[in-house]
## 1
Amino acid sequence: MTVLLTPLDVAKVREDFPLLTHPFHGKPLHYLDSAVSGQMPIPVIERMAHYQRFEHTNVHRGVSALSQEATDRFEEAREKVRAFLHAPSVKQIVWTRGTTEAINLVAQSWGRANIQAGDEILLSAMEHHANIVPWQMLANEKGASIKVIPMDDRGVLELDQLEALLTPRTKVLGITHVSNVLGTVNPLKAIIAQAHAKGVVVVVDGAQAVPHVPVDVVDLDADFYAFSGHKLSGPTGIGVLYGRKELLETMPPWQGGGNMILSVAWEKTSYMGIPGKFEAGTPAIAEAIGLGAAIDYFNALGLDRIAAHEHALLDYATAELGSIEGLRIIGTAPGKASVLSFVLEGIHPHDVGSILDHEGVVVRAGHHCAQPVMTRFNIPATTRASFAYFNDRADVDALVAAIRKVQEIFGAESDDTSAEGQD
Amino acid sequence: MATDPRELYQQVIIEHNKKPRNFGKLEPCTHHADGHNPLCGDQLQLTLSVVDGRIEDIRFEGHGCAIDVASASLMTGAVKGKSVAEAEAMAEQFRGMVRGELDPSTEPHHLGKLTLFQGVKDLPSRVKCAVLPWATLHSALKGEEVVSTE
């Protein structure tokens, strides 16, 4: 049976984003940078403001009704995250500052307890620095080594090599669900099953996946899954680590302090169970509640409707950009998410970014915190447009017009690249 | 409100980016330095021949954005034949200009056509691109071998 989706009412959705109607350099703003950070819709902003106005105090403290209220709202947000990830228990949802902190938590707590000299840490060639550097730090400390799953020229992992890369020394696989540069959606379920067959723990960077792909951590069988609130139209400063219960329970605490203890004495301190033992100090309460509101917002729009809209827009943008001479799209994996990286022949991405910005088209130009990906494609940087549920064809058309302006300014039609000029 | 990019990406800058002057490496050289802009990945290697306190020759190699490459190209042309003291003074004036601290239309300077880069002051994220060659020159003349604009 085919279920027909009612399409997303983008014009109505856009009303929830004041920034999109706010002039930028005196022009309409075309925000094509949701992969760097999503914009918060009014209901999220209002929910956080309401908390700050009427509900705020510290959580898990004291007996006042106000503290109980704040704690309830905070824990409700945790339940929303649990449901969003389809996790079995709310105890498996650990608040962090973001994806980066979540991965560092795994590397520093689970990693330090389980990685030894001579062990191997396997990463994919398309990882963000957040899923590289914490492992390098651990490898350096322990005398372990890093191995890499290569990718082809489309930005598809060469999984025929996975079996050989998963050696008896491999302890952990760090892999992104969706590439922030290439848009590649990795076939996680199969990869995780293959890793588990060799007893390898899998840590998933879900930062770019959550706004585009429905996530079911049980179906994926992920051991750890990390994401950030601000990529999901929530605030910055809040993120999530989901962990398999048996792993979280055996892991030592990471940071120490208030909130993570049962009792403290000079002789001995005992810790909370999960997730509390990983949450030292006062958490980002308003941000957690804001993330909960962002999840409500996504659910109301419908993840499948969002995906359908974004895929249609990506197809349109890919065709439009593909018709521009001298433009090369970096990342052409089948079924990719709505991230479009490109380079223009003879023009540095930072120059592209500056001119696009002036035209009101906000994109990211740079290495996207994924320098090994740049090296793999032998480019210094890319310009990246990323499409969210509030973008429409007018945004793509503005991008195309702005790219043509860049080429005009740089005189792309001139092919005179003869010998070096003289002063 | 930012300057129209055409005011910055003028024809001279576009041309120097496309056909950089003094591109290459001096061997042997008396001074050299490597400049990096970690945020952008821009890289620049400067080699100089300084004789009796005067820059007899200068070359640069590397890759970067148009602002960076054109700045290096125009800088090498501007300082060739100048004394070290004169070059250092130009470096100081150039930095002042792109940071908006020196207005070349009202204040004395020896920047000549380097005033083309004046528009960079309205693009704060690009100031370091324009300054990288000058920071690298300063390091080379001081005998420091690596410089980073971050």
Note: Strands of chain B lie at 31-37, 42-51, 54-63, 146-148.
## 2
Amino acid sequence: MAEVNLPGPGLWTTSVGSFPKPDYLIAARGRFARKEIDREELTELEKQATREWIEFQDSIGTDLVVDGEMYRGDMVAYFAEELPGLEIGGLVRSYGNRYYRKPIATGPIGREQPITVDWWRYAQSLTDAPVKGMLTGPYTICDWSFNEHYASRRDFVLDLAKVIRDEALDLERAGARYIQIDEPAASTRMDELDLVSEAMAIVTEPLTAHTITHICYGDFHNAYPKMLEIPVDQIDLEFANSEYSLLDEFSDDPFTKHIGLGISDVHTHELEPVEDMVEGVRRALKHIPPERIFVDPDCGLKTRTVDEAKEKLSNIKKAVDVVRAEL
Amino acid sequence: MPITTTVVGSYPKPPNEGDTFRVRKTLHALEKGTVSVDDLHQAQDELARQVISEQEEAGIDLVTDGHVRWDDILTPFARNIAGFEIGGLLRWFDNNVYYRRPVCVGDLDWRGPSSTDAFRFATSVASKDVKAVIPGPVTFARLSVDEHYGDHDAFVRAIARVLAQEAFELEAAGARYIQIDEPALLNAPEDLALAREALGMVTSELTSAEVTLGTYFADAKRLGTEIFHLPVHTIALDLVSGPENRELIKSFPGDLKLQAGIVDARNTKLEDTGELQATIEELAGNVGPERLRVAPSAGLEFLPREKARAKLHRLGEAARKVGA
């Protein structure tokens, strides 16, 4: 377990990972796809957008900063594009009118070079606050891909775990003290929670950084307290969109790790009032001490507009300041 | 004896590689207010036409409109039932696909048909029989939030009453085949008696339509052979995600038809036609070729368009070879 070395009494503010891309970047990604601009030109705009998001987080006093993933499309496809053994497949729908290119495992998965380290270095160079390293977990990459190669899901997941471990070690060598390995799919199948843990152990065992996993959309009432077996220091969960119902579970089975407390629903345009968020944090404090709580939105904010995302983040900070003053 | 082929329901909405994704573009434009709902309906009609002709070209005997107008099997109905609101996103079983959960906030009441216009359009462009698909009452209730009835059985019965009217209207619109999807029943053996009663209610007004109970994503082991005694003519079983269903099929009763899901609707790896043929022959031996219909394991929307199409072609080819 890595110590959290951040200023203040706890209730540290952070984000789950993605932020919306500004209009100029969305347009540039379209032009890049149509080969109207080159990679360098796109990268410059991705850097500009990253800089703007870091400046915004610094301006509201965020404790643990993210780079906002301006250079990523889908959280699985981004890694699949870089990893030998995975190919980008055709479009499939995830919900509503949203589609993604679902990867296909066509051979043994490997890694030729670091994928996220240069971006992490760039983001960290822009701020004094620590920047999270952001990886997609092996179970989720497997679960959100087709498999034409591996004989079993376990074989597929464990090969991915070794690749993600190597990436995490490279982030740590570059200086990352907080590394998040997202497993939103972890709550999909209760009979595979052990596989989630087995794979996560491969990733986190050699790390000294504070490790985090984000899990969402799940059958939490069945996954808890078993999910506490996942070998990470912090689990980040969505609370706002279920009206904090998960907190009730903590009365019977105490939450034993650091928690990422999602207090703003990312799938609604509606901006939650600060008072509601304050109430949510106060409720969480009845179960978990402040030095084990990070406060953030429920999930990545990339589906909101830039303004909506900024308003949600600002309100989260305001709510945290209110509760911190009561400590 | 030819083996008949069908699909479970949904079909990929994205275009074949290189073509314009008209439905997605039109939905975006509709959000911005630059096109009308009529434009969306035209785009959806065009897609339904393509999807039906792709199924027919693959040799599918009993087609659907691919649910091209739906995001999932619940919300198109819930939107049209008084007492339901549409809630937050939730995972659709164990897939990386999300649906909006209906929330029941008052007495449920049928406000008119939800699916008959789409069914009529599909029959007008299809040269084969079209199957209508509706959600089953147990699955509908289990995947919704009940803030009103406060009693699961009462909630299921209220949904069944509304769905009975939908089924009646579908038959009146010419539906000879109606599939009632109950994937959630597979993990709810405690609802079996309730399902029997509720399915009886849904089908009570039907006079001649052949009714299929649709199940997928898992095996029916927890229901056991009781699943064969529900008030339907055909049972659809997923033999890919539920390989143990093969064991159950050995006790298949003589007065029921089997819709066997034998092509993986959730993975891109293409099945070998010879192996499919062997599977069909074995199943025909179990239940009799005249009582067997073969299909993908679930709706095909989990696959990219080209893969769905390629899989249907292999299914059609294997079924023809067995029948030859």
Note: Residues 4-323 of chain B form a domain with the TIM Barrel fold (CATH 3.20.20.210).
## 3
Amino acid sequence: MIRWILVAVLAIGITATGLWGYQEHQEKNAILVQAENTYQRSFHDLSYHMDLLHDKIGTTLAMNTKERLSPQLADIWRLTSEAHNDVGQLPLALLPFNKTEEFLSNIGDFSYKTAIRDLEKDPLSDKEVESLQSLYKTSGDIKNELRKVQHLVLENNLRWMDVQLALATEDNQADNTIIDGFKTVEKTVEGYTEGNLGPSMTGTSSEKHEFKFLTGKKLNENQAMERARQLFDLDEQTEITLAKSGDGAEVDMYSASYHKDGRNGYMDFSMKGGHPLSLIINREVKDASKSLNEGMEIAQDYLERLELSNMEPFQSSQYNNVGVINFLYTQDEIRMYPDSVQVKVALDNGDILGFTSRDYFLNHQEREIAEPKMTEEEAKKMVNGNIDIQEARLSVIENDTGEEVLTYEFLGLLENETYRIFINAMTGSEEKVEKLKGTEEKFEQAV
Amino acid sequence: MRLKKTVILLFFALIFAIGISATNDIQPTEAFSNQVIQQGAVGDDVIELQSRLQYLGFYNGKIDGVFGWGTYWALRNFQYEFGLEIDGLAGTETKQKLVKASEYDKNYVNQQIKKGNEFTHYGGTPKEQQVKQGQKKGQEGTKKQQQGQGEGGKNQQQTKDTPAEPKAVNVPGGFSQNDIRLMANAVHGEARGESYEGKVAVAAVILNRVESPTFPNTVSGVIFEPRAFTAVADGQIWLTPNDSAEEAVLDALNGWDPTGEAIYYFNPNTATSDWIWSRPQIKQIGKHIFCM
């Protein structure tokens, strides 16, 4: 009898310990994941901030007017402090990374000093511009190295917790990719000597307003079904699921979807007027047989069929076997950046795979455009003299405060980089300067 | 499995056979396909375009097979110098002029691209002087070359026949391939079982949060915000994403947003917080309800 009780007690004891142990293990894992996530976040933030920093220094070099320069420098200062902060959060204490940190604080000092200075009275000297150029180059190198490390980390699922361990136990240091990568970054900065020192989409702001320009009558469910069939270009047999949007939606809309022969379609269109806002068709896309240029023509025809006229293609990109083309509404040859539409075309057979026109229907109206007060030549003078201007035209953009303004748009080159510069056609102030990129080296081959 | 192996073997045998028959021909002279090449395009034609423009000294960037801004300006300058219409499009007339004026050593360019070498294609300079072996791949490259010669040039024939892959990709404004990959990881972890639009929707929510003043300003900041995404908290984010996740992220970055500007979403079956039910809802896609 006693023996049985003893066995039972022991059994309960062992099970309890086991359970407790398992629970502890689970908790430990949860905390490990959380710690890992914090490291990952700092690391990815760091690469992003370095990238942004590099671009900002680039745009600063392309700027001219003092009113825009000071906030830009202040922004650089903010970014350096963020990047510095990110470095501080990583478990790199045992790794020599001080040169990079020094570099960051050097940019910080430089941008702070110049940002608070009255640049109207005391503009950037040639020497300062020169040092800005070298900062631009070095930050570019650091950015590239960091992006490579980041690629390796993502590709191989590397863990920062392992770095911490590797750093703590000196002997494995040699073969840790992250540590190696950071050492390369550090080496890049060494080449930079101290003696040198002396997103949102184009043209739209993040300010939101209502859909106030939608025209047409409100559709009931039967009409909506008909409209969906027409927009999807489907016959009567295919079943379409229709749903109304809820209270949170900015504009009342119907969402329609279908599934047929390996194709999935999903579309939003406004209740008022039945305007298509967003369309996604998903299917497997085979090897491209059509060129991006043909894709663009198909997209243009499609817009005509949707009765969107005067749309001018302004940007196109091929991703694998699909082309994405960005269109802008033009009125009297003036580009309206707020009225943008994107179309996605499958380059295997030219099907339309997607369409999004939220921005267009949010902003589009026939505008009364006043005559510019400045001539193109006058506006050109407001652009930084180092920029080699290649193209010029008039366009309407939304500025930082969300107002639509008429501008001269210049495309120009500065040291092999392309910049888009908007000069207010009424006041001559520099509304926006953007560095244009759009391609990136593939990392597989670079590393 | 065995079938696959046989197919692969057959495939290689075929390539080998074609390789042998091709060696007898002199360097192919045909140039460009029929397409009009425009900015944003990728592929063989772009590699040829860049090489030819570089041969004439108009293009000084890397020959990477992606028609970016550098190529655009080079082409325009070419059109200007040769008295063509300056439109930045490589159409029939432009291509003809270009082919007449320049030479293109396709084998040389393709091989350099495949070996990952840094190289140029300027006219009037010996090819040997225009190649800089890639730093890390350099040794590997020479080794392969020696091997190739040792085996009677078998490898070289193979590389000649398959076209070279472009060395760069288009990325939507300001985002790196790494940002895309990180987002694809998050989307895959969060919406693996969802339809395609459900994935685009999750990616769009991440981007809407980046724009929103109440959330962090970077993609990584939003994704790794503590307790924001369950897939991040339980480590599912580190599963390898599939192509459809990546494609969905590209769509979202290019402006698609099937959620109608939502910044929250939840699964009504598993949601534990009452608060989330109080948010104004926009719509449901698959298992997720999207709200403001």
Note: Residues 26 and 107 of chain B are 11 Å apart (CA to CA).
